[in-house]
Specification:
The complex is a heterotrimer of chains A (about 270), B (about 425) and C (about 300). Chain B is α/β, with parallel strands linked by helices. Chain B has helices at about 1-20, 40-55, 70-80, 100-105, 115-120, 125-130, 150-155, 165-180, 200-210, 230-240, 255-265, 275-280, 325-335, 335-345, 360-365, 370-375, 385-405, 410-430; strands at about 30-35, 60-65, 90-95, 130, 135, 140-145, 145-150, 190, 215, 220-225, 265-270, 290-295, 310-315. Chain C is mainly alpha-helical. Chain C has 2 domains: about 1-40; about 75-300, Orthogonal Bundle (MetI-like fold), CATH 1.10.3720.10. In chain C, helix 3 packs parallel to helix 7, helix 3 (about 75-105) runs antiparallel to helix 9 and helix 11 (about 260-270) packs antiparallel against helix 12. The chains are: A mainly alpha (about 270), B alpha/beta (about 425), C mainly alpha (about 300).
Chain lengths: ~270, ~425, ~300
């Protein structure tokens, strides 16, 4: 095959992949900048008039800002708590002598395989009993639980890859395990922690099922719940839904473009070491 | 580590408490908490609540807004009441929830609010819907019932009167649509709500009642969807309406989508609730303003026109610590004066009979005059504390019968009836406990 | 220093290490036990009772195996199970195939590869609810993009895709494939990256064609990461809920009712905590079975892999 032919095929493949990944999303982006009449126009308008009307109405009439705030709080807390729990567990699993390490790692992995519905009823009952329905911690705790496996696996792998020599040298100098962890390992592990944190944040930002069950109070609902329950009185507010969707997605798209390498590595690390 | 964990938890608490700061949680004797949906006329509500606060100095009404979909609103409210939350004093109930809320002990009986003479002032169907085991659990504020809206200009143009039967609607519609298509006016005959959701039960019950059938025998508590009258009505919708008088898309439509078709001038007839009147007549939201008529729903030959009863009631939470204040608030909202304002300013159909004779109300809503008969005759959906489960079985049946061309109507009706019998048996068992 | 003191010193050191490890692991295990393993057992317990959330007194009913017998006879549940399995099989198969294609493209080196990889990540990063609304809009019967692409500007020929039982099921599969193929691609990309370039070069010298190289080098070496992608996708597809909730609410004709949605409706919309828990238990065991099947197929030693 001649060289330019191969280049042409590759270019075609690249274009196809890019179109597949981006086109549906771009269509919603375009829709969000239309006017109500343009949304229902046939043939559809490719170039919108650039109206911000839907954004104004999504923020003004549909409480979009509220959802954004709630999502930031929930996703932020989930990330914070998950990381602080799993960093230590991962260090122990990667470096310290533990009996039944395989059992612990395997047990955690099983959690990530649970269908949510198999624990949803009981979790709801437990939260109800302790009065945590419609509270931030009530939603954060199930999220933390479901994210633990991913975080622990990614971090355990990451710790495993750090050179052992520094820690051994520190131990010979008489440092305790706690000192080694806090002074030496944690600073070295920052990139891995960051990667896991991104993955968890995205998960918590996007989760819908538990958010729907636990946050029944309008003022506490997160973005996915808000967007799913968007309904107008006399038409489907497609423009506002599109605008809210863009607002919900834009931070993630930014994160993806900024940290593409880390995310790819984080996702595959969890998988391949198994 | 403990330090880090502790600080994480503290951070969590701070953020949490911050989140609840803006939403005062305190249960105070001077604060009345009212759980409602996002109103279509926020300014009317605002001024009415301000009026209440003015007449009752020292009392603050805090409204909490639930989702506008009835099912989601139910789930949210039910969850609050399951939690025995004292943060709810007064709430809106859809007409189908009353038996459930009464059986669960969530709604408090409020018989003293409406002595017999006062009860007489309300539409009897609406009072019956709020009565369970002889006790009153809610006071109706707004009434809803299915109506037939039509394009008065087109009917006049072809010399038709509003149809009395479905068959008549079919004949008129097919004729008008054929003629209009020649002039390039692309229009369909009928638009209504046929998605698999609660509204489907309302719509299908109307067809079945119009054929002298019914969904459920309230005395023997036996489903009647397998009776020939009911089957026939379902079959008519499946064969004549879906994909023929109405586009197949109606199988995905709830109220907003079906209304959009009508107000864009693309449907000749439209089944919906009374709120449509105001929207369809507003030139900013409707292309057919001034060209709309409203009448009773059609029936089948030999049947009678019957609408499904809908509407919103005010109830008092059994866990409220401000019961007296809550009763005062309900008395205020459902009184003649405020209901009149809702009718005139927001176009909502009142629950008090006398308002249908009120000159000012009728001047603002000329359609109410005819609607009163519809409201008087409106039929409730099956009354059971397990209504959500019964409705789920019915929705599944109707949607399958209408959308799946391979399904057998009788067989699907049988399956749904089995489900409903099982649900009834579960209820008897828990009663026996 | 004698041998004896040395020994106790080492033991002291070891016990300090064990204690420290236990301390580090405790919060993690506590959370897992409290919010994951305890709920599973509790679900099992609830499934033996007849609790109905809105009926006081119902929590005292003991059903024994009755819920499961009823579930076995419940045609809706059986249909939901069938829908779920078909959805899982079709969507994961498509996702893994498509994912492999994407992975092969983004594994090549070319200018702007980083940007393309980021673009591929976009569907994965988008909230599923957003993706669902997006596809629901594309499938819209009156002004959806799909109708325009297929039928042109003549609205009278437009299809109501989501009104057709079979099509609405296909629509949900399409939305899922779009949303998650990129995840499968990334997992397999990691596998592709571990294939040394020399293998291809020597095959090229031997005169192997592109298909032959793919068949004899790429596929065998990417096999394990392909199976992992398949495992992850399968388990995730079992949980399909958001798409159904937003796009169809289980309809029309119940054609898109899947197990997780049915269980949700039973427990949270209708209040049948007992019966709904029986569904939960069923879902749990079905997905366990799938898991075991894959782990066997992968020949992985999940437990004690690191020992």
């Amino acid at each position: 095959m001649s060289r330019w032919k191969r280049t042409a095929i590759l270019a075609l493949a690249v274009a196809a992949v890019a179109a597949f990944s981006l086109l549906p999303f771009l269509w919603f982006l375009v829709t969000s900048f239309k006017t109500p009449l343009e949304v229902t126009a046939i043939p559809p308008l490719i170039i919108p008039s650039g109206s911000f009307g839907f954004y104004r109405s999504a923020f003004g009439r549909y409480d979009l800002l509220l959802y954004v705030r709630n999502s930031v709080v929930v996703a932020g807390c989930t990330t914070l708590v998950t990381m602080s729990v799993s960093v230590f567990a991962a260090y122990a699993l990667a470096r310290l002598r533990i009996r039944r390490r395989g059992l612990i790692l395997g047990g955690l992995l099983i959690i990530s395989m649970f269908p949510q519905i198999s624990i949803a009823g009981p979790i709801w009952s437990i939260l109800q009993k302790i009065g945590w329905l419609n509270t931030v911690q009530g939603l954060v705790m199930p999220y933390v639980t479901l994210n633990l496996p991913l975080a622990v696996w990614v971090l355990t792998n990451f710790f495993g890859e750090l050179p052992k020599e520094i820690e051994e040298a520190a131990r010979i100098d008489g440092c305790s395990h706690a000192q080694i962890l806090f002074r030496i390992v944690l600073p070295l592990a920052a990139p891995g922690v960051f990667t896991a944190a991104i993955l968890i944040f995205i998960y918590a930002w996007n989760e819908f099922f538990f958010a729907l069950l636990i946050m029944t109070r309008h003022r506490l609902q997160t973005l996915p719940v808000g967007i799913a329950l968007f309904q107008g009185q006399y038409t489907m507010p497609w423009g506002e839904i599109a605008a809210a969707s863009i607002v919900a997605t834009l931070p993630l798209v930014l994160v993806v473009f900024l940290f593409q390498k880390r995310i790819v590595r984080g996702l595959s690390a969890g998988a391949l070491k198994g | 580590m403990a330090a880090v964990l502790a600080s994480a938890l503290i951070a969590l608490c701070i953020i949490t408490s911050h989140a609840s700061c803006s939403d005062p949680k305190r249960v105070s004797p001077n604060v009345l908490r009212f759980v409602t949906w996002n109103p279509g006329h926020p300014e009317v509500w605002k001024s009415i609540i301000a009026e209440f606060e003015k007449r009752n100095p020292g009392i603050t009404v805090i409204r909490e807004f639930g989702p506008s979909s009835s099912t989601s609103f139910h789930d949210m409210l039910a969850q609050k009441l399951r939690n025995r939350s004292p943060e709810v004093d007064v709430f809106f109930m859809d007409v189908i929830w009353v038996p459930e809320f009464a059986a669960a002990g969530w709604a408090d009986p409020i018989d003293e609010l409406l002595p017999p003479a006062e009860r007489e002032q309300f539409l009897p169907g609406a009072i019956a819907a709020n009565t369970c085991g002889g006790r009153l659990y809610g006071v109706p504020l707004f009434i809803d019932a299915g109506m037939l809206f039509y394009r008065s200009d087109l009917l006049r143009k072809y010399g038709y009167r509003p149809p009395a039967t479905w068959q008549e609607m079919e004949r008129q519609g097919l004729h008008i649509v054929r003629e209009e298509a020649r002039t390039g006016n692309d229009i369909c005959v009928f638009s209504a709500q046929f998605k698999q959701y609660e509204g489907l039960v309302c719509v299908m019950q109307e067809f079945i009642l119009g054929n002298n059938g019914r969904l459920f025998d309230p005395e023997t508590r036996v489903p009647e969807i397998q009776m020939p009258a009911a089957i026939e009505a379902v079959r008519y919708v499946r064969e004549h309406i879906i994909g023929r008088l109405a586009p197949r898309g109606v199988l995905t439509y709830q109220e907003p989508e079906s209304l959009a078709l009508f107000v864009q001038g693309r449907a000749l007839f439209h089944r919906n609730w009374p709120y449509v009147w105001e929207i369809a007549g507003d030139p900013r939201r409707s292309r057919i303003a001034g060209r709309v008529g409203v009448t009773y729903l059609p029936r089948f030959p030999g049947g009678r026109s019957r609408s499904t009863l809908g509407g919103w009631q005010l109830g008092v939470s059994a866990f409220s610590r401000n019961r007296k204040m809550a009763l005062g608030f309900i008395a205020f909202l459902t009184g003649a004066e405020i209901q009149k304002r809702f009718a005139i300013e927001a176009g909502r159909a009142p629950s008090r009979k006398e308002l249908y004779r009120d000159r000012e109300v009728l001047a603002a809503n000329p359609q109410f005059k005819e609607m009163k008969t519809v409201f008087l005759n409106a039929s409730p959906r099956p009354r059971t504390p397990l209504y959500p489960a019964v409705s789920d079985a019915l929705q599944r049946y109707f949607s399958t019968a209408l959308a799946d061309p391979d399904a057998s109507v009788e067989e699907e009706a049988g399956k749904a009836a089995d489900r409903i019998r099982w649900i009834e048996s579960m209820m008897r068992r828990s009663r026996a406990q | 220093m004698t041998a004896a003191t040395k020994k106790t010193g080492a033991r002291g050191h070891a016990s300090e290490e064990v204690r420290f490890a236990a301390l580090l692991l405790a919060p993690c295990l506590l959370v897992a036990l409290l919010f994951a393993f305890y709920p599973i057992l509790y679900s099992l317990y609830l499934s033996l009772g007849g609790t109905i959330l809105s009926l006081p007194g119902s929590e005292r009913i003991f059903m024994g195996a009755e819920n499961f017998i009823e579930l076995f006879h419940d045609t809706v549940a059986r249909a939901a199970l069938a829908h779920t399995l078909i959805f899982v099989i079709v969507s994961t198969a498509l996702e893994v195939m498509l994912g492999l294609g994407i992975a092969l493209v983004i594994n090549r080196s070319f200018r702007g590869r980083g940007v393309l990889r980021a673009a591929v990540l976009v569907p994965w990063a988008i909230p599923t609810v957003v993706a669902s609304q997006m596809w629901r809009f594309i499938f819209n019967d009156n002004y959806g993009l799909l109708n325009y692409v297929v039928f042109g500007a003549d609205p009278s020929s437009f299809q109501a895709w989501l009104a057709d039982p079979a099509m609405s099921f296909v629509a949900i599969i399409i939305a899922d494939v779009w949303k998650t193929s990129s995840f499968a691609a990334l997992i397999m990309l990691a596998g592709l990256q571990m294939i040394p370039d020399e293998l291809y070069e020597s095959a090229l010298i031997d005169g192997a064609g592109a298909w032959q190289r793919f068949k004899s080098i790429t596929l065998p070496l990417v096999r394990s990461s392909l199976l992992i992608a398949l495992l992850f996708r399968t388990l995730d597809a079992f949980r399909v809920f958001d798409l159904v909730f937003v796009m169809t609410q289980g309809g029309p004709a119940d054609a898109t009712n899947v197990l997780q949605f049915y269980g949700y409706r039973k427990i949270f919309a209708e209040g049948f905590l007992g019966y709904g828990s029986a569904i939960s238990v069923l879902v749990f065991f079905v997905s366990c079975a799938v898991c075991v099947f894959y782990i066997r197929a992968l020949g992985m030693k999940m437990f004690g892999a690191d020992e």
